[in-house]
Amino acid sequence: MAFRQAAMLVISPGRELLGIIGLSLLVSGTAVCLASALGVGFASVLALSRRFPLRGAIMNIMNTFMGLPPVVVGLALYLLLSNSGPLGFLQLLYTPKAMILAQFVIAFPIVTAISHSAIVSIDPSISSAAKTLGATAVQHTWTLIREARFGIFSGIMAALGRVMAEVGAILIVGGNIKGFTRVMTTAIALETSQGDFELAIALGIVLITISLAVNSALFMIQKKGRRGFFYKS
Amino acid sequence: MFSSGKNFFLKAALFSILMMVFVSPAAFAAKSIICASTTSTQNSGFFDYILPIFEKKTGIAVKVVAVGTGAAIEIGKRGDADVVLCHAKGLEMIALKEGFFVNRHDLMYNDFVIVGPAKDPAGVASSKTAVEAFRKISSARRTFISRGDRSGTNIKENAIWGMAELNPKGRPWYLESGQGMGKTLMAASEKGAYTLTDRSTYYNLKDRLGLKILFQGDKTLFNQYGVMAVNPAKHPNVKFSDAMAFVNWLISSEGQKFIAEYKDKHGNQLFFPDAD
């Protein structure tokens, strides 16, 4: 019974359900885009500048933070963004922006660590060829990022998967406010606690479908990457 | 899109900036206040009923962050909410005296009930007082699930254990869920356990639970809800006038009338207005 009603909800979602799904995608998508832009940049700087201070320590921290518990991120950001905290004047608590920030904090180490290992494992001859051909520092960096793009892309997808599934951080900094900061995972938690399993199941189905789509896309791209499809362009 | 790394990352950065701009308007569309409240008022459907009425009348959207009463008061103290609606008058009065809140009013009441399996193995149903009921559960060593989360319900429960001169914490039959009322009721139902619940959440979930009301009506089980505004002198950022508009409407004869008219899907009245 619950499953049938859930299936009906998936087929014809109401405005509330669509809003929840939309906000999930918006928050997680934005967080991952920001994390990608900054994380890949940071990773390439780390990987390419030989004498970057404390590189080993930074990578160690990034690798540790890949497994950062979202509730801890939520708690830390709550204390920072609270009106009684140092960043309270920004008035970000209980807004989608705070949720984006939380997911960015979770996604950034993942993108950075995986991109870094992808960039450092590129065949060194590519790097020296680029230099020999007279590439500027920027051109050289872009060449290596392009070479490592499939590894980097895996990192971005891993980050997306993690933040889409995350509930601890956004629940604390977003507050799960109906129609404003309620996303799929926090809605599932709430609906389950209220015994409204239909909506919870429907959202679960949507969430898994999105994960499946993201992973299929990743798989296709990597397969094409191995075949050298993209190298023509 | 993936053909050029440079393009991809430029696009990603551009997209994020666009999204940030896009997310922004929602944050200050019209007037809105944040209300820290309890899981029992949210789980009972009360806010879904009352807030649209208030918003339609005043144009002020009320965003509810539903946590336990202890946490709701804490959120208010930190200035992270504009108004707090909860049910632990003792704690509320302390926070009021400390100057964190102003204009506290009794708002409405209902009662707590002791629920458990229909078979009632501890014989709670024949108790004369809530204290006696708790004593029976304790001496029969039947599973009791506590919220264990400093919520209003949890505070009431601890007070009753105190009156019974019992300290069940750590006993094998005494479990602390650390969850909201809805999840605690479902856990009690799964385990055939006893628990203390507010009547509204129990009614809302009744169809999905294998639990019966076994004891009710003792004046110890009175459940007073109150509402208060965060003191703008402590936190200049709070939206005090909008918060007061909400408080004043709730305690007005109109707000009180709407509270009295709220019925659950079985036609039970869940909250009884008693603003002072």
Topology:
The complex is a heterodimer of chains A (233) and B (276).
Chain A (H helix, E strand, L loop, with lengths): L1 H10 L3 H34 L6 H11 L4 H12 L14 H25 L3 H9 L4 H11 L1 H17 L2 H7 L9 H10 L3 H31 L6
Helix pairs in contact in A: 1-11, 2-5, 2-8, 3-5, 4-5, 4-9, 5-8, 5-9, 6-7, 8-11, 10-11
Chain B lengths: L4 H23 L3 E8 H5 L2 H13 L1 E8 L1 H9 L5 E4 L2 H9 L3 E16 L13 H11 L3 E3 L5 H12 L10 E3 L4 H11 L3 E4 H7 L6 E4 L6 E9 L9 H12 L1 H9 L10 E2 L3
Helix pairs in contact in B: 10-11
What share of the residues of chain A lie within helices?
over 70%
Molecular shape of chain A: globular
How many strand segments of chain A? 0
| Residue windows where pLDDT falls under 50 for at least 5 positions of chain B | none
Query: Which class do the helix and strand fractions of chain B yield?
Result: alpha/beta
Strand content of chain B: 15-25%
**Rough shape of chain B?**
globular
Taken together, the total number of domains of chain A comes to 1
How many angstroms does the end-to-end distance of chain A come to? Answer: 52 Å
Short description:
The complex is a heterodimer of chains A (233) and B (276). By secondary structure, chain A is mainly alpha-helical. Chain A is built from eleven helices and no strands.
Question: How would you describe this protein?
Answer:
The complex is a heterodimer of chains A (233) and B (276). Chain A contains 11 helices and no strands. Chain A has one domain: MetI-like fold (Orthogonal Bundle). Chain A is mainly α and 233 residues long. In chain A, 76% of the residues lie in helices and 0% in strands. Chain A has helices at residues 2-11, 15-48, 55-65, 70-81, 96-120, 124-132, 137-147, 149-165, 168-174, 184-193, 197-227. Chain B is of the alpha/beta class and 276 residues long. Chain B has 2 domains: 10-110 and 223-273, 3-Layer(aba) Sandwich (D-Maltodextrin-Binding Protein, domain 2), CATH 3.40.190.10; 111-221, D-Maltodextrin-Binding Protein, domain 2 (3-Layer(aba) Sandwich), CATH 3.40.190.10. Helices cover 44% and strands 22% of the residues of chain B. Chain B is built from 11 helices and 10 strands. In chain B, strands 1, 2, 3, 4, 7, 8, 9 and 10 form an 8-stranded mixed beta sheet that branches. In chain B, helix 10 (240-251) crosses helix 11. The interface between A and B is large, with 43 and 43 residues.
